Each structure stands twice: as structure tokens, then as C-alpha cells.
Amino acid sequence: MSGHKEAPELVFRGRVGVWYQAVCVAIAVVAAILALQTTLPVFVPVLALVVGAVLLVPLVVRNRVELYGDRLEVFFGWSHVVVPYAHVRGVAPLAGGAGQFTGHLCPTEFGGLFIEAPEDGDVAVCVSDNDALASELRRRAGLGEPAECKED
Q: In this structure, how many other beta carbons lie within 10 angstroms of the beta carbon of residue 119?
């Protein structure tokens, strides 16, 4: 097996919402406040910074959808989901209802996309151009455009 990785045909960068950035800043502020407390052991603020970095930074750095000839790959934090286009059953705006429950919930901003792929696990994402990603996924999966999303 070759160590050479195939280059993606298209890459859609993930978006990070203001609310998510606020969570990151809040964790950094809490760690800084803990660091100023002279009564706490030094490992407490260091631990808060490390845990915050391990949980939050990868979600910002590794947040993208890559499209290949036969599949899409979602990178989000520590997770990596591969879905062949043949398994995609639908692409719709993310409403967050019970019908769109997924174990691969990847948006860090409101207003993402729900990719229905029951065989591989449904995926929720939020990228820089959700409409372009939805159109491209529908084209590659052979789904066609939904009637309710067409503009008059």
C-alpha cells in the first residue's frame, strides 16, 4: 500500500460561528483567571488550558469537507467520516429536529447541512458555502435538486 494520499477534487472549509468563538474565549479566560489564583496548585490552570486546547482547537483547525471522485470525507476535530456518494440519500438544510439526529454532528455554526447516509451514519456540517456543497453533493450522488429549494 502506498503512503501517497489522493488529492481532493474540491475542499469546502468549515465555518466557525461567533458563539463557538465565544466558548473558546471563555475557556481561555477561565484558565487565565485560575492561573492568577495563588492558592491553587500550578497544575489546575495548566490542566484547564490543555483540556481546552485538546477539545476546542482541533474543531477549528480540522473542520472541512473534501470531495473525491467516489466519496466525500468530513474532517472535524478528532473525527474523520468517509461517505461514498452511492450511500448519500439526501442533502437538506440542518433543522436540528429528531429526524436529523446524527452521531457525526459537525457544525460549529448555526445553519448547516444535513447529509443523509444511513449506511455510513448521517452527517451534519457547516462550510463556507453550504449551497455550493449541497448542489455538488446532489449532482455527484445523482439526487437532483429538491423542489422546495428551487428559487422562483
A: 11
- Find the angle CA(80)-CA(81)-CA(84) to the nearest 5 degrees: 140
| 100 Rama class: left (phi>0) / alpha (psi -120 to 50) / beta | alpha
- Asked if residues 92 and 114 have their Cβ atoms less than 8 Å apart, the reply is yes
Question: What type of residue is 21?
Answer: Q
Nearby residues of 152 by Cβ (< 8 Å), 6 or more positions away: none
Q: Grid coordinates standing for 133?
A: 456543497
How far is C-alpha 97 from the geometric centre of its chain's CA atoms?
18
Specify whether the CB–CB gap between 126 and 14 falls below 8 A: yes
Local structure of 41: helix, strand or coil: coil
- Burial letters for 32-65: b for 16+ Cβ neighbours within 10 Å, e otherwise? eebeeeeeeeeeebeebbeebeeebeebeeebbb
**What is the reported pTM?**
0.72
Q: Per residue in 96-105, pLDDT tens?
A: 655 555 555 5
